[in-house]
Amino acid sequence: MNKFKLSLLTLAMAGVSSLALAAEQQSAETTQTSAQPQSAAQQSSTTEAAAVDAVEVIQVRGFASSLFRSLDAKRFGDTVSETISADDLGALPDVSMADALTRLPGISAVRTGGQAAEINIRGMSGGFVFSTLNGREQVSTSGKRNIEFDQYPSELINSAAVYKSPKASLIEGGVAGTVELQTASPLRNEKQHTFTVNARGMYNDRANEVPDGVEFGHRFSLSYQGKFFDDTLGFAAGYARLYQPSVATQFVGLAYNGQKDTNDDGVNEFISEGFEIQHKGGEETRDGYMAALEWTPHDAFTLKADAFLSKFDKEAFARGFRVKFGGPTAALGNPELNGSSVIGGTFNRTTSSFTRVEIVNDDNRDYDEVRSFGINADWDVSESVNLSFDVSHSSAKSNFRNGLLWALVAQDANADVPVLDTNVSISYMLNGLNLPSVGFNQAAAFSDIDKVMVSKYGIYPFVNEDEVNAYRFDASWLLDMPLVASLEAGVRYSERSYKNDRSVFEYGSDGAFLNSQPPLRLTSDMVEVVNFSGDFATYPSYLAIDLDKALAAWFPQGIPQPVQTWGTGNPDILPSQFNPTGPNTNWSVLQSGEVYEDVLAGYVMANLDAELFGIPVSGNVGVRVVQTDQSATDLAYVDGNPLRGAQNIVDDAGLVNTAYAPGILGEKYTDVLPQLNLNFGITDESQIRFAAAKVMSRPPINRLASNTSVTISDDGEISGSSSNSPFLRPFEATQYDLSYEYYIPSGAIAFALFYKDIKSFVNDFTIQQFDFAAAGFDVPTQIIDEDGIPRETFNGAFSTAVNNGEGGYIRGAELAFTKVFDSLPEMFSGLGVQGSYSYTESEVSLINTLGGAAIETTFEGLSQDVFTGTVFWNYEGFDARVSARYRSPFVSSQVGIDEQITNFDSETVIDMQTSYDINDNFKVLFQVNNLTDEPTKSYFGDKAQTGTIQFFGRQFYLGAVYTF
Description:
Layout: H1 3-14, H2 20-35, H3 40-43, H4 46-53, H5 62-76, E1 81-84, H6 86-91, H7 97-101, E2 107-112, E3 115-121, E4 129-133, E5 136-137, E6 159-163, E7 177-182, E8 193-204, E9 216-228, E10 233-245, E11 248-253, E12 258-260, E13 269-271, E14 274-298, E15 301-324, E16 331-338, E17 341-348, E18 356-380, E19 385-409, E20 425-431, E21 434-440, E22 452-478, E23 484-502, E24 505-508, E25 520-521, E26 527-530, E27 542-545, H8 547-554, E28 573-574, H9 587-590, E29 593-612, E30 615-637, E31 649-650, E32 656-657, E33 660-680, E34 686-697, E35 709-712, E36 717-721, E37 731-742, E38 747-758, E39 762-767, E40 782-784, E41 790-792, E42 794-803, E43 808-820, E44 832-842, E45 846-848, E46 855-857, E47 865-875, E48 878-887, E49 890-893, E50 901-904, E51 907-917, E52 922-929, E53 936-940, E54 942-951, E55 955-963
Main location: membrane
Keywords: Cell outer membrane, Membrane, Receptor, Signal, TonB box
Organism: Rheinheimera maricola
């Protein structure tokens, strides 16, 4: 902390009438002084800091104290940032860091299964958010770059900060912002020894609507922090366990991927693929571990090692039925149109259509694990020079196993040769954001064991492994100069690798009964008739199938395990003893691969301490230079030509493919990122901030994979396609922030304006006359056509993911207010409010055709309006708060349907938390999450075209916390 900031801090504390902020800062300064060696600047400011001790203080407890700590961090930080204090996380812990972060201005969450997982900052989705733990880059179980914050138990995180404007010393990567999570630093703990036990039971009030749904769960955590040997050695450890039911009842509309002239006007209308109505249930278990060892043998040196581990296992089922309309070849009667899209009518199966109802009993298992380790050495070489060295490792593994069981309606399930019942009629009428009306002529058969037969089983594992090793060196110099208070410089090198493995096992058909793989006759011990209830009570009953019993009967020799295989039906594949049946599954090989990313970054930054026209000015100015070397494994289709590198590639099943050439594709590039932060101390109570920076976010790590297909026509034209690309460059933006902060007695008001000029986005695009050879593809200069005539090759089109160069602005405003009404009568002196409102708009748009006709939408994650509000009250050990989070409509991936982008309706989520201190060590608590049972609702561009309607239920918690 430089002299200017410390002086301003002393003056500000003296001016706060309730002196609550002074109490919190005094505590923080005392703790820091006792726990850490003072820098030269801190030692020279002893006289100024002593003024704090002379101020009379009034102790503020509960939620209010955590707010003051957050305001303190915001006020005296050198960037535009928001923080959450340890008290806020420890007193009434949220389920995860995702829930905790959404209470901050300009931050919203995307709910998955009813729980906040991905966060959006200032209208930008999680892919633009960079995250660190203890200052170190974190990899993710998402298979992308954005970390899933529900993987991080709030009980094990000591503080969190969201940097909306960067500085050169921060690791690059967040166009939207950077989230910094911190675990405990034991030598900074106020007490000599602290041990905390937190236990609570959990109940979901919708679980009884889902057969086999789990109603009760629990949370448990314990942590310890201690200081030893005259406060030179500190140790902290923590464990947090979450076991909770995962339940939902849902309607999911499917994309409009067919066209048919439904009213004989000569113009085609768009037809949906169908819809799903399902019960979802399961169990989620998360075990988190944290440890830190901190050693300060003398005042000038600190060595700290820390570790974090989180295992999050999810086992879930989805049961109900999936309706397939059958596309344009089905007979459609009484169509109801919304513009050019069909939203109602009666579909009847024809001899050429696949109109049907599938009874689904899916089994999904997702085992995720995150590990993070680091060692940091901090050395005050002299009174003015500090050196820091950091080594870290972060790894993540996600093993998602998607097991699907299909059943169809037979004319007679007891026949020697079962025949599919093709008399299918499906009526429906969408009802906007309310549940639709549906009708089936086969409805009675869905729960009839003499009609329903299992027709197909498939297992589709998706395994991701992601890890990064990083090395960082930083140095700082205190300077006795009129403008620059200190100088910082550093270098960081990281090596990141990402691996994606796909595999498959399939047996049977989801649309027919195969003679070669006959359907399974169900017995009474395998099934249970399930009725919908509540809002879904009008929908037909169905058979819930015991997966284990059904598979044991269908595969008495044991269920074959999925493999990564080329499959059959491809003339380039040589058979082996193992010959998997079913369709060509070469996607399991082509979508598997590895990505490598080596990054070397360096920075220099000057910390400012000056006066301009009598106004104190602080902040920093610097530049960060980043060199990236990225590459990916590649299987290029070369039509079996050994001169172009074709090799015999053997899959897990022993099948040999002769058509592909393995290789490595990639490139290097350099980014220069200048950054500026200025803070103007207008008065003792107010300041203005200005920030400007060039920022970047790398593409999702999975999109750097290469799944390229290159072909050469008989006339010599080279063409290719790839849904991903190892040549993708980062998203880049130039951003500006201007904010005003006014610190009133026991509170603050802050107003901010922001503007981001986005340079490019990743889009799928076709490049004409693409230079394949220059891009690293092994292509011949000449071929021999089918008539034996030599022909020169020439460059044709390449369809791939590219940085399209067409960006646009994102701009907006934020208003935040915090106030504790300590001047009220004693009983109400702990009453307070905290609220924020964010407005965001953008000229950036995406084209979405999933609803039929192409429409223009905002990019993912942007809500025009975001509001957070909390009313809290603390009195004589009783602490209560009610929090609300509102976000206006936005665009995101539809629940349960990967890559199906839809518009989500606005939502308001309300939580309530209360606690009472029995004594200084023991308190009881009660809380309710999703108090109003807010559902998730989405639509395809127009609210008349229903996407998802999903209900999760309320979660009730009752428990206690013991600290000593």
